[in-house]
Amino acid sequence: EVQLVESGGGLVQPGESLKLSCASSGFTFTSSHMYWARQAPGKGLEWLSTIYSDGRIDSAGEMKDRFTISRDNAKNTMYLQMNDLKPDDTAVYYCGIAGSGYRGQGTQVTVSS
Asked: pLDDT-derived band of residue 63, with 50, 70 and 90 as boundaries?
């Protein structure tokens, strides 16, 4: 059974940082392309970044300066380092397997003073 479990979300103030994790099991993580996406209140799902099995990265242009995706194949875990968070970053953040319908339940990130 494929399992994707996001963690690391929370309430932070503008300008602070968070590192999200996506713990994976039930599939071959090392050969899978993985992504992060988010959904803000009242908006659709927004793709943020994909990390391929070979380590290549694609990211939405506006995210490149503040968000960094990474993976640890030994731990079957993917990460999203988010810096200089802004109120507009408030959303539920999801990880998923690219090209599949598998996605985690999400972790809430709230940026507010």
From this structure: confident
Q: Are 34 and 71 in contact (CB under 8 A)?
A: yes
Place of tokens 């999203």: 80
Token digits of residue 106: 């999400």
Displacement of CA 19 from its chain's centroid (Å): 9
Asked if residue 84 lies in contact with residue 15, where contact means CB atoms within 8 angstroms, the answer is yes
According to the 3-state scheme, what is the secondary structure of the chain?
CCEEEEECCEEECCCCCEEEEEEEECCCHHHCCEEEEEECCCCCEEEEEEECCCCCEEECHHHCCCEEEEEECCCCEEEEEECCCCHHHCEEEEEEECCCCCECCCEEEEECC
Task: Provide the mean pLDDT of the chain.
Answer: 96
